[in-house]
Amino acid sequence: SLRMSSNIHANHLSLDASSSSSSSSSSSSSSSSSSSVHEPKMDALIIPVTMEVPCDSRGQRMWWAFLASSMVTFFGGLFIILLWRTLKYLWTVCCHCGGKTKEAQKINNGSSQADGTLKPVDEKEEAVAAEVGWMTSVKDWAGVMISAQTLTGRVLVVLVFALSIGALVIYFIDSSNPIESCQNFYKDFTLQIDMAFNVFFLLYFGLRFIAANDKLWFWLEVNSVVDFFTVPPVFVSVYLNRSWLGLRFLRALRLIQFSEILQFLNILKTSNSIKLVNLLSIFISTWLTAAGFIHLVENSGDPWENFQNNQALTYWECVYLLMVTMSTVGYGDVYAKTTLGRLFMVFFILGGLAMFASYVPEIIELIGNRKKYGGSYSAVSGRKHIVVCGHITLESVSNFLKDFLHKDRDDVNVEIVFLHNISPNLELEALFKRHFTQVEFYQGSVLNPHDLARVKIESADACLILANKYCADPDAEDASNIMRVISIKNYHPKIRIITQMLQYHNKAHLLNIPSWNWKEGDDAICLAELKLGFIAQSCLAQGLSTMLANLFSMRSFIKIEEDTWQKYYLEGVSNEMYTEYLSSAFVGLSFPTVCELCFVKLKLLMIAIEYKSANRESRSRKRILINPGNHLKIQEGTLGFFIASDAKEVKRAFFYCKACHDDITDPKRIKKCGCKRLIYSKMSIYKRMRRACCFDCGRSERDCSCMSGRVRGNVDTLERAFPLSSVSVNDCSTSFRAFEDEQPSTLSPKKKQRNGGMRNSPNSSPKLMRHDPLLIPGNDQIDNMDSNVKKYDSTGMFHWCAPKEIEKVILTRSEAAMTVLSGHVVVCIFGDVSSALIGLRNLVMPLRASNFHYHELKHIVFVGSIEYLKREWETLHNFPKVSILPGTPLSRADLRAVNINLCDMCVILSANQNNIDDTSLQDKECILASLNIKSMQFDDSIGVLQANSQGFTPPGMDRSSPDNSPVHGMLRQPSITTGVNIPIITELVNDTNVQFLDQDDDDDPDTELYLTQPFACGTAFAVSVLDSLMSATYFNDNILTLIRTLVTGGATPELEALIAEENALRGGYSTPQTLANRDRCRVAQLALLDGPFADLGDGGCYGDLFCKALKTYNMLCFGIYRLRDAHLSTPSQCTKRYVITNPPYEFELVPTDLIFCLMQFDHNAGQSRASLSHSSHSSQSSSKKSSSVHSIPSTANRQNRPKSRESRDKQKKEMVYR
């Protein structure tokens, strides 16, 4: 039998006959007699040849050979390393002793030693240095190869890990076979692959060994131990043609490096993800390795039991056993039978239970803490998206979505992506789910470029940044938003950004960002600027703040059947501001003509246009002109600004066609017609201009005698070259004059003749009738100006004076009481030395606009803490007619000293609102001041003053003026005996606090702000109404420009750049260019109680008033300020008024109505008072009291006052304003 076994080993003929090369010579010399004696016993131990037993017919196992190869490699290498270290240590000690002897010899020999004797030593040292350098370079190369510092190294590291996982998979496959079996290397494919893997591992082990600094510690590393017990057995199995699973399960320990591999590939970047992968890899590798050991010992049995106590367990059953053991569940269905297995389980429970108890909860916590909103946005083809970031709360998001997704807009095909670093609460999450079709939320920060990439900021249509309006430190909030802008612009400079800013002076920092470009749509909505600008406009026309706030807010129409003030107010609330390009049918017509046509025929109110200047050298060729007057002609492709209730209604201005829609009375039928439209070209402009009327002689331009011969010849030439069809050619007298005849004028022929055929403004001389509003004013105005005195700022937009010290404008209580203040503005300000600045310059600038004459400026008196006002004074010292009364707005003595009962408006502001956490108490100071004023009682001051002084009469109370004087059209302020009738506007932070302002209203605390009576009456204003400007600016950036032009008094980008440079207005000499900037319209209120419109006040139609004011005075009416109880049949003592926006044509007027209008600048109104205004202008810096503060005159002066008043009245035109 031994011979047969050797033959089989030599020829490799059979799988059952294995090569028993381990049979020794001593066993082959056994006697045959001894074999025959034990033959019966050996026959009983013979195991049948099957796939589950070793290939040796006698049942001999070779596992010890595989294990011995690993142990010999490990301990042999360890012995060699220790031996090398010992020898090296001994050599070092010996060399150290020899070195001391040589050194002593050198000292003894000294200089007697020649240079030639030292030369061999030097050569030897150089050879050693060269050898060390070569070894070092090889070591460094090996270190670079395994450290993943280069691309080759990273590929090698990843490849080793991938092959280790492959070897582990092969182990999983082979674990279904017996622990030890015979396999032919040339026929077994998995063995060949495993052999190739281990050859690669051997080479990688050599690289690691060369690169290791400490060979001993390298030999004891986990990865080295894995190689010792997995690589040598493979070579043994090839030699013996026998496979043993053995310790191949140790390859599972390579999983510990999984996180390092993912970091090399830049897949793991965050600390949480790295920690999670580390915990998972350690837990799984330990679990699989322990299962492999149990699988080995349970399927093999105990060696001292001759492997008879084994049990058949699959590898995955062992994995299950280890899991229930670690979790201390232990069902008992699978358990260890061998002694080795049970002993291992005892120690594994100690470590496995600790690992399970610590790792699993931490893994679950890390997985649970993963960002729910941590994905990436997937852009939808054909659909734009915007990114909204900043202050993301339930209130800010709900207000934004309510306005952005309003049904009155056209179909909003925009997806809103919110990005915030804090996950939303349940209420906000529910809000997102209700709008899930158009809203997505992602958790992250715009300061992180990775998060910007997640939300696809580079493909976004715009990025909107919301600010926290209620923060305690506005400058810090603005700084945060500026940093957000910098981060976004740094990532994608071309992105359009619309951001909210709290403080006006912080807007200057945005100009420092190189990629910030307002011409490309970047906008900063300064809440302080607009809020105080709205309040300032209410000082000029009370209730205007409410009307403007409602215009850019999207409100749904609420129909009320009862005849109450809410019915008319809500009808106006449903109007919004829209833009649309004008039809070519309007080309060549003047602005008032187009405005009248739109209001009468299209039921639209056009208030402004975007004018393209013909001057190509102008810095801004496009300008928004509000009610520019009849000197301006509509150009082709002009953009109009309309007030309407729906975006579809505004389309009528674009679809209107003279030929198709001239006879249509129902504006809803005005839709896109089928006729051929004129091409936007110079030829079409000439055609349209030829059809237009000459506004000087009233004839067509062909028959016009005013037109020069050369121009008329050009028109005739064009007509011959391009004959017009019958549809496009209409006689001027039968086309546009027919429209004018539909609305007969209520003025007498004399007035028509005096007003230039109801086209020229009475305030404009013929010299100022120009066809380009950017031209210089007339010479008569320039001659009256002293070029040596700076009266306006360098842009000509605001009145200016030399800087004044604050001590020169401070009034004591006694000085203020002795001075008769009337028609002024009282600003009650709460603040102290630690309060945040609110920017009072934004309140004063609209009241000092240059389109007011100097004598028309309302005096401004600040009542508040002098410490706070000193901090604001640096931005106020260049404005004239400003005084300060140190005190408190809660002091009635201070309020009486400034004649609060004679003021045109009392403004109540607070700089301490955001310092209080309780929202209900944020407005306590403003509410207390408002109620304090309303409870005050006054004497009949106006009657007493009139009886004692003929020289002083408050504005609007001149009894001696004729009926046609504009004074009769001014709002006459009645005698105020109670504080309830004082015009007040109060700033609020919390909308719900509006219920405390009026004690006699029945507003529900849950009522929205715009539905409350104080807001409808214009006596309350909250900064929350400005939230709608974000979405309004996104859909149309011209809306913000128009609103800013209306409320700021004419702030321009050039002026903002100047303020950003110097933080103050710079005075400038009057030039034709700067004086031309004064010619812009302003908001006023028209009284119907008397004056030229008194006949329409009693039962007249609003449409008739609209057309008459537009034709006669170029005044554009756009709303009514009506008494609250005007609809009642019984007279009421209530003086509260409410706002009606854009009433219909047939709306009936009452005599007590005040009409909101846009009036033209009156060039001649200031000439009669030129000497007064100039002298007061120059003396403002040295006088403590302003010249507009009316003092009771002496007896000598009283006789001259009536005469001067009559001369002033003669020079006034029939202009009605407040």
Can you give the helix content as a percent range?
Answer: 40-55%
Instruction: Return the structural class.
Output: alpha/beta
Termini Cα gap: 130 Å
The largest sheet is: 6 strands, parallel
Low-confidence stretches: 1-54, 111-121, 676-786, 943-972, 1168-1218
Q: Mean pLDDT, nearest integer?
A: 76
What is the radius of gyration? 47 Å
- Described by the principal axes of the CA atoms, the overall outline is elongated
Q: For the largest beta sheet, what order do the strands appear in spatially?
A: 5-4-3-6-7-8
- Count of β-strands: 24
How large a portion of the residues is in β-strands, by DSSP E? 5-15%
Number of helices: 49
Question: Describe it for me?
Answer:
The protein is built from 49 helices and 24 strands. With 1218 residues, the chain is of the alpha/beta class. Among the domains are: 2-60, no CATH class; 138-268; 384-521, NAD(P)-binding Rossmann-like Domain (Rossmann fold, 3-Layer(aba) Sandwich), CATH 3.40.50; 792-993, no CATH class. The strands form six sheets. The chain has a six-stranded parallel β-sheet with strand order 5-4-3-6-7-8. A six-stranded parallel β-sheet has the order 16-15-14-17-18-19, with helices on both faces. It has a four-stranded antiparallel β-sheet with strand order 9-12-10-11, sandwiched between helices. Helix 21 (527-540) crosses helix 42 (1037-1048). The longest helix has 47 residues, at 63-109. It is elongated. The relative contact order is 0.07.
